[in-house]
Design goal:
The protein has 418 residues and is mostly helical. The chain folds into 2 domains: 57 residues; 252 residues, Receptor-associated Protein (Up-down Bundle), CATH 1.20.81.30. Helix content is 73%, strand content 6%. It contains 16 helices and 4 strands. β1 and β2 form a beta hairpin. α7 runs antiparallel to α8 and α12 packs antiparallel against α13. The protein is flat, with a radius of gyration of 30 Å. About 6% of the residues have low confidence.
Length: 418
């Protein structure tokens, strides 16, 4: 197993050197990173001096990357991890290009690695980081680029990167909680559909053969069950199987049009419990995004335009448009928020106080924290409520099938006992 000598930086920006045994340069890099170090140079140790072998893999980047944008986006986890690492390297005092080179070569996601390599090429060509990121809108959205631009202008790029990371991590955490609350009931419902389909296609026909031998008139519930079984066996199973897909595609089609998206968002926000969670999480996202942009020095009108794009809800987009127009005319933010009907009086009052005291960003972040706590509680309550409801539903369905199957048997037994 070859030995590798390396140079690396710790989190405080201090340089250290050492020697490590590994199968290849990639494994050597991973072992160095496990020590909490950021490798800047790795060379294989040879008998006749040291020959450069893996240095280019760490310090250099692939020059084959074009100046255009990368084709696809990346998962939010990948972007958050990249931002956190870049923030750490910048805080440690490494030059920006060196930091990006290190991250490019240790990034497992190919799209992200290619994008970071392209950033290095653009920056070495004289562009700012924000200008280079603009070429990759599917990875670095408008919010990300504008915050980086504000950080560059204020000379606090490491601080902005840290804020961006916290913002993305909290947004991802909230998204995971909402998705987790919906996953459990969906899985149970899918299992129930498969189980009922199996009963209808294979169990009920066996009972039907027995009923035909008896020849008596079947009770109404049994007749209904038999007809459903025939429907499922004659191709209805395909309808049941593809019904969720059809619903999903229909929703996608509706949301592809502006009017349809507004209608969908309004309907969702009026569903009991679910609507409250969607509303509070949307308001939380609005407050956190606007607060983060304001604390980063982005002008208010520009920040509102960015928040509108990042809201993900057509209803709140209309409200933000009203706020934007109000601010453009020199008025306050609080008044149009109150008239929209989406924001509770507590939120409006806190925003108003923030405007009066000049601490709008802090007030918005407090609102976001409060709403995140509310969403956590609501999601936990919704999950807890789903369990007994689903159990009762399954009990009613299975119980109804059992009763319908055994009614003719009970009637036959009563005749035989007479």
């Amino acid at each position: 197993m070859p030995n590798y000598v390396y140079k690396a930086m710790n989190k405080k920006g201090q340089e250290s050197t050492g020697e490590i045994e590994a199968d290849n340069s990639d494994m050597a890099i991973k072992e160095i990173q496990k020590k909490g170090l950021f490798p800047t140079e790795v060379k294989e140790k040879r008998e006749k001096g040291l020959k450069r072998s893996a240095t280019t893999a760490i310090v250099g980047v692939k020059k084959s990357v074009g100046m255009g944008g990368i084709g696809g986006g990346v998962p939010s986890k990948v972007l958050a991890n990249f931002t956190r690492q870049l923030s750490t390297l910048q805080d440690a005092g490494l030059p920006l290009v060196r930091s990006l080179q290190i991250l490019a070569n240790q990034e497992p996601n190919k799209s992200m690695a290619a994008a970071v390599e392209s950033l290095v090429v653009d920056i070495q060509g004289g562009a700012n980081l924000s200008e280079a990121m603009k070429k990759h809108p599917k990875i670095f959205d408008r919010l990300f680029v504008n915050m980086i631009k504000a950080g560059e202008a204020g000379g606090v790029l490491d601080v902005i990167l840290n804020r961006l990371t916290e913002f993305m991590e909290k947004a991802e955490k909230l998204k995971r909680k909402v998705k987790g609350a919906l996953t459990y009931p969906l899985v149970v419902m899918l299992f129930a559909m498969l189980m009922v389909t199996f009963i209808m296609m294979w169990v009920v026909p066996e009972f039907e053969k027995m009923f035909e031998q008896v020849g008596d008139e079947l009770p109404t519930p049994t007749v209904i069950l038999r007809n459903i079984s025939h429907f499922v066996a004659d191709g209805g199973w395909a309808v049941i199987l593809f019904l969720p897909v059809a619903i999903y595609l229909t929703i996608k089609l509706i949301k592809s049009h502006e009017s349809g998206r507004k209608l969908y968002d309004r309907v969702i926000m009026r569903i009991p419990m679910v609507g409250i969670i969607v509303k509070k999480s949307t308001v939380s996202r609005f407050c956190r995004t606007l607060g983060t942009l304001q604390s980063s020095g982005v002008p208010l009108l520009e920040a509102l335009a960015i928040v509108k794009d990042a809201s993900g809800n057509a209803v709140i987009e209309d409200a933000i448009n009203q706020v934007h127009d109000s601010v453009k005319e020199g008025d306050s933010i609080a008044e149009p928020l109150g008239t929209s009907g989406l924001f509770e009086p507590m939120v409006v009052n806190m925003v108003e106080v923030g405007e009066e005291t000049g601490e709008l960003d802090k007030m918005l972040m407090k609102v976001a924290e409060n709403y995140d706590s509310d969403v956590d509680a609501l999601v936990s309550g919704l999950t807890a409520a789903f369990e007994p409801i689903l159990i009762v539903m399954l009990g009613v369905i299975i119980g109804g099938i059992v009763i319908a199957l055994f009614l003719p048997i009970i009637a036959l037994m009563e005749k035989m006992s007479v």
